[in-house]
Amino acid sequence: MVIDRIFRLLGLIIFALIGWEIGILVTGVSNPILDLEAMKYVGPLTLAGAIIGWIVAPWLTTRPAKLAIRIVRQIPIEEVIAGSIGLVLGLMVAALVAIPLAQLPAPFGPILPFIASIIFGYLGAMILVLRQDDMIRLFKKMRPRARESVEETAPEAASPLPKGPHPLLLDTSVIIDGRILDVAKTGFLPGPLLVPRFILAELQYIADSSDALRRARGRRGLQVLDDLQHLDSPKLEIIDLDAPDVREVDEKLMVLAREYGVGIVTNDYNLNRVAALQGVNVLNLNDLANAVKAIYLPGEHMRLRIIQEGKEMDQGVGYLEDGTMVVVENGRPYIGQEVDLIVTKVLQTSAGRMIFATPEEFYR
Fold first, then answer.
1. What's the domain range around 87?
2. Do 286 and 175 belong to one domain?
3. What is the pLDDT of residue 318?
4. pTM of model > 0.85
5. What is the pLDDT of residues 60-107, one digit of tens each?
6. Which of 226, 261, 290 is the last residue of a domain?
7. 218-228 pLDDT per residue, tens
8. Does the N-terminal or the C-terminal CB of the chain have fewer CB atoms within 10 Å?
9. Helix H or strand E segment including 102
10. 3-state secondary structure of 37
11. Is position 24 within any domain?
12. Domain check: are 310 and 359 in the same one?
């Protein structure tokens, strides 16, 4: 880039001059050009300074600027506005507090007003950023009703999203997983279900992979989309919205979700956590699957086939129809048999629900 070369040239000149001045300080000669002995030191130092300046200049100028621009682009505009308003309010409070603080004797009088400006400016910005949702609701309540009705109907008319009660963005993982089709058939998702074209392109890329497993997963995802399109409700819509300044697909989804106020359907744990931290509504199919599993309480009876050994001595393991693992104490002798069990403990983990039980004859 031209700007990068310009700053490299400026860095070369500035650091060369610094090397020249260091050489003068080392040799103690005011004009080393006339002194060949001094030039033996000044010349290499100047050359070294020029080389260092050429190398480090972008890392001191353009690279930090690009990083700052990238970070600022990822910050929601609501946080920028809230932080700016909070900073102004904090500095106003600091200006009022600075008047009595400046009357204190030295060294407190000259220093404390400056410290108060930093503290109150930071507190003001952080408080407004953390309470931005409350501030937005307050502004909405203060608007006149006529203006509110106009502003609420205008975005609907101009919105590029399909009309529906609750639009939801689908990510790649939940499409490949396939369970979204069964959930959609039950009618629990009002829709419409939205699939951006960059998600469709990623699915096609996976379906064209040279790896047989990835290719099969990609083709299954495309088949799921085809089946969803044939449902009467919810409607599946392919949308052209994109976030061209963002490279990662998951980040593109979060940008669209924040911008248009829609939710994301996923079963990606990392996307779920990151989206939740950014205030995006997330529907996780794994959480839904865990929520609808049968609930057993300690003391309840069940009948189960024990199919394998457990990790501990005398343990057996079986599985309910929904895939829930049941660890049976003293169950190893019953492997391959159906046994009447009594639930002793139910453990909920991030990976799902685990049930501990013991045969009835050992429970008595």
1. 77-158
2. yes
3. 92
4. no
5. 887 887 877 777 777 777 778 888 888 899 899 988 988 888 888 877
6. 290
7. 899 899 888 88
8. C
9. helix 77-102
10. helix
11. yes
12. yes
